[in-house]
Amino acid sequence: TEEASLIFEERRASFRKRRDYLVEALSGLGFGMSKNIQGAFYVYADISQFSDDCETFCSDMLENHGIAITPGTDFGEFEARKHVRIAFTTDMMSLELAVDRLRSALV
What are residue 42's phi and psi, to 5 degrees? Predict the structure, then answer.
């Protein structure tokens, strides 16, 4: 229906806004980011500037900074240890809080 189409487009725009915010913010913090993120509800970020062990990095972020990030090793083997997956399925306020916490953790 037309009503459903409007709802879907609104949701798509919301995800796009959150994705764009997260990509720009993470890039600004020094994470390596793909220039062509499409379709998914997460970003796959290169953490090699900060760590060579995504599992230790993610554990530290959760235990010491309250940031839930998934290690790349949960999703494959190729260069997985230097990547993390960060979902943007939450609201913008939560993403902004996570970015603020990341900024504090990485300085």
Answer: -155, 165
Q: How far is 3 from 8, CA to CA, in rounded Å?
A: 9
**Residue 46, φ and ψ in degrees, nearest 5:** -85, 125
How far is CA 67 from its chain centroid? Answer: 11
Distance of CA 87 to the CA centre of its chain: 5
- Kindly state the helix (H) or strand (E) to which residue 8 belongs, with its residue range: helix 2-29
What is the CB neighbour count within 10 angstroms for residue 10? 9
Cβ-proximal residues to 49 (8 Å cutoff; 6+ apart), any chain: 30, 31, 32
- pTM, full prediction: 0.89
User: CB–CB of 32/45 below 8 Å?
Assistant: yes
As a whole number, mean pLDDT of residues 56-71 equals 97
Q: How many CB atoms lie within 10 A of CB 76?
A: 10
In this predicted structure, what is the pLDDT of residue 34?
81
